[in-house]
Write a structure and sequence with these properties.
Two copies of one chain form a homodimer.
Chain A lengths: L2 E5 L3 H13 L4 E6 L11 H5 L14 H8 L2 E4 L1 E7 L4 E6 L4 E6 L2 E4 L3 E3 L12 E2 L4 H13 L4 E5 L3 H12 L3 E6 L10 H13 L3 E4 L3 E7 L2 E6 L4 E4 L2 E3 L3 E3 L2 H5 L23 E3 L6 E2 L6 E2 L4 H14 L14 E5 L2 E7 L2 H6 L5 E8 L10 E8 L6 E8 L3 H13 L24 H13 L5 E2 L11 E5 L3 H7 L6 E2 L17 E5 L4 H12 L3 E5 L2 H8 L10
Parallel strand pairs in A: 1-2, 1-7, 2-3, 7-18, 9-16, 10-11, 10-16, 11-12, 26-30, 27-28, 27-29, 29-30
Antiparallel strand pairs in A: 4-5, 5-6, 8-17, 13-14, 14-15, 19-20, 21-22, 22-25, 23-24, 24-25
Helix pairs in contact in A: 1-8, 6-14
Chain lengths: ~550, ~550
């Protein structure tokens, strides 16, 4: 009879316990959780604060009693594992209820301690109006404070997933929110031009953005905080949410001299084994290989944690299941928008010195003539030699999850961008297009790969370059409505053939349209007439998203 | 200079013309269309009839003038190609406006004539109250008749894609609709148990279903039709829509002795070449290989037509692009439901003698605790030896397109069902689940493949079999609410361990839960205790969908 001890009773730990029990009715399984609850829906916390999820109990997926009844697992809440003795294969447990310390032996031990919010060492940051959001108690205290202090303004520090979800949750409580972010953009996990529509969306909801600024000091005066940023700006706030990232909980592993990885998280192999073959670790506390770069990465996400737990549960009973690396697929709702990504971002590719080609597309979420179609902006990055998909990002109000999921599957399957042309996606006017934006991305990338469509990227464009002429091929009405790039000559695409002699023969022609589609038609036409033409990928729309000033975005 | 003639100016033809022009500015391209319009959105017709698409002009994606201005293509509408002379490489064209006939020579010829509605030889079917829906004129005449005759009741013959979309469009006009279908289910392209929720949805919208019945005679009396079915039933109707399928338009190809395939459609190779290497054909008129069976198939869908057109356009100019077979991915909106499928159905697999294993899952479209989650029912069929995905079907109110698209990509990529476990799909509570139903399908299929979860299918279950006991492991409240299978013993899953001695040791235990998930837990428990247990895949919910009586379905 195998005796399995599991440290941590949420995503990874609970998955492992359930899997182990299904495989072996006789195993002795004990799950330790230092807090009061197991298996709670922490991803739902912002939505309970917002009021979208009305019922607190909906967040409690299992109780210790229900979990034991279903899986015959001895669940010990308020029991904190404080030490591991690898040599003797025992752990030391502090029972916070009985206030005793005891030991428990194991055959196999699983660490699923999660991660903890990182709180930078800021003067005055420890105060009773400042919270992070990781536990049910954190959530409850935030909700209570909003009520008892009648909060009308708040500051969120950190513009990533949790930060943005908390901004939305606070605005839903009629709170005026300031967002402070160290990077020069919100959602730093995606590239700046893809995050631009979010900046607009946040401001449209009354959020004040403080980008490229860091919180420096916090001073509390009763129910009020005075926040000073490194720019010198000061913000008065009744509530401060710290959401600048998490750090893996490695203290237990570290004390036991289990190997940590380059990222500071617990090192595990594909079987989720640590450097001690009887000790496994999963979830937000471990390091994984990035699917694309094959470099070590710390990617704390619910999906991988759950799957890793299931794998560890199997392997602790002699299985040979393997975790197959992390792509980092993620999505965030920001008011009416969703933003999602898979694989590596452009900045990560650059940082890691990985060669890439990028293309941009903008297209409707379903047939444009059917009501409710919303623009999707898509960025696709691929290897110029292998044509493999390196990363993709999408932003818009509808169909974002679907497009990134499709690309996630294609990436994992090792499909090339050429193969995206042939994907057969479900089409009826309410759901898609006969040539979906994913197929279009395949067409565009293939045209770039085989040299039939030379492109220039908006961030490569140097205005006033003497060897280039900018040709805006949109209709005059579009230029009047959206503007154009300084110095561009306007010749509508349908007039190009008749006005071909207006084009300089000795310069490179940079073709500008709204989204890059007509630009492709024009670029091909000009190339076939022996002009040196390049298409501005993603058109004027992507170029605009590269401009630092927030510009007016047309609504869906 | 290559001279390209294109017969048909909608999806396939227009795609080919645009692609050819982008590749060669100097090619001479003429596109012939026997009707008045090119490049119109025929998939939108039902939604203009319903009023969802208000603007008629929204359906006209291009005019002959706009297409010529953009692509320098000589578009000749009302010009019908009536003969091909392969030897001399000329075609004969009837200009219906000038009422003349003329010849045109070609280097390459593309046939994109589409398909025509099949009208069975029924007595009285030719009358001015009976329509099919293929052209803009068909649509306009239906809309006009609804208004002028003040239609309050109508009959649709044929319960496939067009038939169901037309049912919905008519109901949107406050018309009482009868639906006549030869098969014993609506949407015969999917399997009967997956179509069951649609039958309920249709009846909830006041539609009267006549299944397993054929229209036999039609008698018109002024503005009234008297329809007699082969069952003897008669229906009075002010309007009859015939939507029993389409037939490829092959008369031109046939006259020219181009080879037709086993399906009756034009035979083409992967380059979209017919038996005459200078003549290409694409779209609803051609036969393709089915991706799964590699058998010849006639699958008239917009996506393949568009992609085939693009490939033919390239190849007529010396390209070597290849069409990569058809998976038949399709989706249909039926009031609040969507139903979608990819690959082969169970009945097609059986008909073609392809061995398969099937599993069913029911799960929420996103995290169940976040508002708006709707049940998805998923059927996954895979090869018991290779684990490749043979087919999948899904039905529900949300997230159906996404799940079938994911499986479509996985199928095309040659992924096994085991690999579905590892897919990293975008997760936040509004969009998905940490273990998405697609991952769950991977878990279930893997458990079946490796023998750790023996299953029985609802359609294999013989009630009262002496060697089996049915064990319903749901809570008594669920049995009271939903019912159970006759003869089942109720032992809730959480009580199984304590009541193990109530179970017969010498019989096979068929485990029944609501959707198959708790059934898996119970089956594993019992197997680990050396019982012979099998899990009813898809649980009571799938079993119910196999029962012919329409049962009450709980709303989303």
């Amino acid at each position: 009879m195998t005796k399995i001890l599991i440290v941590g009773g949420v995503a990874g730990g609970a998955s492992a316990a359930a899997r182990a029990r299904r495989l072996d009715e006789h195993a002795d399984i004990i799950m330790f959780e230092k807090d009061q609850h197991i298996s709670f829906a922490n991803c739902g916390f912002p939505y309970h604060i917002s009021g979208d999820i009305e019922d607190y109990d909906a967040l409690l997926l299992q109780t210790p009693q229900s979990f034991n009844a279903r899986f015959k697992v001895d669940v010990r809440v308020n029991n904190e594992v404080i030490a591991i003795d690898k040599a003797n294969k025992t752990i030391t447990v502090k029972d916070h209820i009985k206030d005793i310390t005891y030991q428990e032996s194991y055959d196999k031990l699983l660490l699923s301690p999660g991660a903890a919010p990182f709180i930078p060492p800021i003067n005055g940051i420890k105060n009773d109006l400042t919270f992070s959001l990781r536990t049910l108690d954190d959530m409850t205290r935030i909700i209570n404070l909003i009520k008892t202090n009648n909060i009308t303004n708040a500051t969120v520090c950190g513009g990533g997933f949790i930060g943005l979800e908390m901004v939305e949750a606070l605005v839903a409580n009629n709170i005026k929110v300031s967002l402070v972010e160290l990077a020069n953009q919100v959602m730093p996990s995606v590239d700046i031009e893809m995050a631009q529509p979010l900046a607009q969306e946040l401001q449209d909801h009354g959020v004040t953005l403080y980008l490229e600024q860091a919180l420096q000091t916090v001073v509390q005066d009763n129910n009020q905080l005075f926040l000073t940023l490194d720019s010198g700006t000061t913000i008065n706030s009744q509530l401060l949410i710290m959401a600048v990232g998490v750090r893996p909980n490695t203290s237990l592993a570290d004390m036991a001299h289990l190997e940590l990885g380059e990222t500071g998280a617990i090192k595990v192999n594909a079987q989720m084994q640590t450097s001690d073959s009887d000790i496994y670790a999963v979830g937000d506390a471990v390091q994984s290989n990035h699917f694309v770069s094959q470099s070590p990465a710390h990617i704390p996400l619910a999906g991988p944690a759950n799957r890793q737990g299931r794998i560890a549960g199997e392997n602790m009973l002699g299985g040979t299941a393997q975790y197959q690396d992390t792509q980092g697929t993620a999505i965030c709702k920001v008011f009416d928008y969703a933003i999602a990504s898979v694989g590596l971002s452009e900045k990560a590719l650059k940082k890691q010195g990985i060669a890439f080609t990028k293309v941009y597309l903008h297209g409707p979420s379903h047939a444009a003539y059917y009501p409710g179609a919303c623009p999707i902006s898509l960025k696709l990055m691929f290897c110029p030699t292998s044509s493999l998909i390196l990363g993709a990002q999408a932003v818009g109000k509808d169909g974002i999850d679907k497009r990134i999921d499709i690309l996630s599957v294609a990436q994992r399957a090792g499909m090339t961008v050429e193969q995206l042309q042939h994907l057969e996606l479900s089409y009826a006017p309410p759901f898609g297009s006969a040539k979906d934006i994913i197929n279009q991305a395949g067409f565009v990338a293939t045209n770039v790969q085989n040299g039939s469509m030379p492109i220039i990227n908006a961030d490569e464009l140097v205005l006033g370059a003497p060897h280039q002429s900018l040709i805006d091929i949109r209709n005059p009405a579009e230029l009047a409505k959206f503007g154009t790039i300084a110095g561009a000559i306007n010749i509508p695409v349908n007039q190009l053939r008749d006005r071909i002699n207006e084009l300089p023969k000795d310069q490179q022609l940079v073709i500008i349209c709204q989204v890059g589609l007509r630009g492709h038609v024009a670029t091909r036409l000009l190339k076939n007439l022996n002009f040196d033409a390049v298409n501005l990928t993603g058109g004027f729309k992507t170029w605009l998203n590269y401009q630092r000033e927030v510009v007016q975005v047309t609504s869906c």
